[in-house]
Amino acid sequence: MSSSCSSDQAFVTLATNDNYAKGAMVLGKSLKNHKTSRKLVALVGPHVSDPSREVLRQIYDEVRLVDVLDSGDTAHLAMMKRPDLGVTFTKLHCWTLTHYSKCVFMDADTLVLSNIDELFDREELSAAPDPGWPDCFNSGVFVFRPSNETYGKLLQYCTEHGSFDGGDQGVLNGFFSNWSTADITKHLPFIYNMSSIAIYTYLPAFKQYGANAKVVHFLGQTKPWSYTYDPKERRVRGDTHEASSHPSFLLQWWALYSSSVVPMLQAAYGDQPFLSGCEEELSQIAHLAPPPMSSEERKQKWEQGQADYMGIDSFDNIQKKLDAFLK
Ligand code: UDP
Ligand code: MN
């Protein structure tokens, strides 16, 4: 069938910030290491830094800026009505890549373990079951056909019905609502989107089939980049009990990130501050001042309850501001 070569087919991912961009870099590297014959496309949000974009451009064939608020009218209007679905709208943008006939979307927190080009033999919308509710598909890996018509319908669906889980997975399952029953060829085997939740929910199956996994998905709160890594000992630090993944997959992610991605990031950042998450740098940078933060970034942090109580947001500084204001 068609798994030989097609330049009008692509793997697509999304990163709206520098952390998810790290995930996208590792994903792109893993696809290339397993010699995909397809194009690689990264959608990036406006908050991804220039050095991160530069590295993404070295790994991906196409790095496309998506900013819902600046793009077409339908998207803008839809966004105005449902500002809560910001990141979700951004993911739906993948349907606008109409210079490709067929694509496979992959979350930035996935890692490819072997060549998966055979996925392009599948049709829209093919995806693997969600481990939490197997009548829904998990939207971390799915096959789709870019189409402005479908994109418009998706946005319309999104504004009218919202998302039952607040994210893209709820919207997509609502829109492609007959996935679970209509066509078994659209059910991807779980090994194309294996979240190690399976380790905890069905250990014997994981022991039996886990070695066949082709894609690991680090879904859930704690992402690979949330940990620190000791490259010398080849160990991941932090509470790996809570890890959504088997320690060996986490190690594979870090091995690839620290060996292939960190050097590219270091080159791209040059003299600018950059934290790789590898352990030795933590002691080196401890004495350096933190990078200056814009007032907009600081406002966001405050609103997320992450005020810098020991530094710029300390009581002394706030009092000084108040004093100046009262004078
Ligand atoms: N994403 C992003 N920025 C965010 C959140 C999500 O770029 O702040 C993208 C990224 O590609 C990510 C995907 O949306 O992999 C889905 O989010 P996530 O993987 O965090 O959800 P989960 O798989 O844990 O449900
Ligand atoms: Mn994910």
TrEMBL record:
Its EC number is 2.4.1.186. This is glycogenin glucosyltransferase. GO terms for biological process: glycogen biosynthetic process. SUPFAM superfamilies: Nucleotide-diphospho-sugar transferases (SSF53448). It comes from Chanos chanos. The keyword Glycoprotein applies. Its cofactor is Mn(2+). Glycogenin participates in the glycogen biosynthetic process along with glycogen synthase and glycogen branching enzyme. It catalyzes the formation of a short alpha (1,4)-glucosyl chain covalently attached via a glucose 1-O-tyrosyl linkage to internal tyrosine residues and these chains act as primers for the elongation reaction catalyzed by glycogen synthase. It is found in: Cytoplasm; Nucleus. Gene3D superfamilies: Spore Coat Polysaccharide Biosynthesis Protein SpsA, Chain A.
